[in-house]
Amino acid sequence: MKIKEQFAGDLEKQFGEYLDRNSIFHLIEVPKQPEHGDLAFPCYTLAGKMHRNPALIAQKAANELENNDYERVEAVGAYLNVFLNKQQTANDILKKIIQEKQNYGNSQGGLGEVVAIDMSSPNIAKPFSLGHLRSTVIGHSLALIAEKCGYKTVRINHLGDWGTQFGKLIAAYKKWGSEEKVKQNTIKELLALYIRFHEEVEHSPELEEEGRFWFKQLEEGDADALALWKWFRAASLQEFDEIYKLLGVSFDSTNGEAFFNDKMQRIVDILTEKELLTESEGAMVVDLSEDNLPPCLIKKSDGATLYATRDLAAAVYRKETYQFAKSIYVVGNEQNLHFQQLKAVLRKMDYSWWEDIRHVSFGMILKEGKKMSTRKGKVVLLEDILQEAIELAKTNIEEKNPGLADKQSVAETVGVGAVIFHDLKNHRHNDIDFSLEDMLRVEGETGPYVQYTFARACSLLRKGGYQPAAEELIGCDQEAWPVVKRLDAFPTVIHRAAELDDSSEIAKYVVDLAQAFNKYYAGTRILEEGKWKGQRLALTFAVSVVLKEGLRLLGIHAPEEM
């Protein structure tokens, strides 16, 4: 936020002996009431360090603070309030956006270093459920934000393509499956078999033994079991790719759990060499009592390796392959303990980069307040939801703008964007109750509302014949000032979203900017000829640039007409 940085710099000249610039910057507030100024600095922290009355500190600073960017400076109690030179400030901000366009808010803080992002990671042979949406869209957005901040990213889809569930599925297919049916509708038919297995096992417990038998066959490379597993995996990826295409998501790696089968023994060997493995009830574990964590299970009593072993192998492989500066795992809240253990074991293995691993956790998407379960068939299929959202968006377009060109494409953009935005506007730690109707409203805090505001701005620019020219003196009228201040905040919001691994910062920001612009639009004749027309269109152009870029950072497209 340029104006806030300027204010912090001016205060540092006076108080740098007591507070550094960064501390001053974070103490600066934006008053809720415009009559209290554009920015305010509370002097309480200085009072403690200077041993003086905070009101006297504020008054002295007000007398000494001189800058052309300020219309006036005043002390109100312990607060130093500044009113900015609106014309000059607006001119600087709007010119910057017009010059930089979609690059506005870019930074080079990442210095080209690599961020590896483990995201999405659905299980093969199961439908891509609504429950997988969160990891996919949060991870995709964080990758876009990291790139905006100067990092290179590696998007990793760590597929769930190994484990005892595949033994159960093979057993179910052998007992009740039909090759013809599975070929016609692979994923849904495999889901039905998986659900049936868990229903039948309640009455026939011996089925569990069959499931274990077939997984053992798979581990030992049995040709029949391996052929079925490869078929299930290929069919799953084909269906997943259709969904990823709709979401606009792609990956640099789809190495799943099976990829690390031959890389786990190295981990066991290192742990053995470093004398970190201890026996517990026949299993091999790493003791983590000094970290106040339960032991990390590395090998079961039958010698089989586990999820933790595989993730340790994956972490080492990714560091050696990508040389990441940060490795982010976008995985649900329920895996918090697992990642605490993972980092603790890597630290014990003397890998200094254990601190560069971050678990970006998130809550669940609930259906009628309850968790969804594949085993019990209580699952909402993401493909169905996306198609339903697109159809609803198309119906809305037919009602409100039947003459719109390329309605199908716009409906896809709006429908899919609504689903993504509904997820990302919530802080990732929170559970979300699924509601398609809420997602698609064109008013309120929704994706379509922000997209519609962008389309409105594009329409005004077309009608006004606006051609951006940064060399003109732009300025702004009084009514535009709240919009200008929000435009100025965009780079700061991006930085905060990156620091917190929280895309909701950007989602809330674009809603706030859209609301400010719509309020301005309601009270201002933007296309009215006269002194302010050029400035109003310049402001509209700046809003369109920032809304489009903000939506892009969420993984959402912005149609120019709706």
TrEMBL record:
Domain DALR anticodon binding per the UniProt entry, residue ranges: 450-562
Report a single Gene Ontology molecular function. Answer: arginine-tRNA ligase activity
Question: Any idea of its EC number?
Answer: 6.1.1.19
Q: List UniProt keywords, sorted A-Z.
A: Aminoacyl-tRNA synthetase, ATP-binding, Cytoplasm, Ligase, Nucleotide-binding, Protein biosynthesis
Q: List where in the cell it is found.
A: Cytoplasm
Q: Does the keyword Transferase apply?
A: no
InterPro entries for the chain: Arg-tRNA-ligase, Arg-tRNA-synth_N, Arg-tRNA-synth_N_sf, ArgRS_core, DALR_anticod-bd, Rossmann-like_a/b/a_fold, tRNAsynth_Ia_anticodon-bd
Motif 'HIGH' region: residue span? Answer: 122-132
* HAMAP family listed in its UniProt record: Arg_tRNA_synth (MF_00123)
Record's protein name: Arginine--tRNA ligase
Q: Which organism is it from?
A: Sediminibacillus dalangtanensis
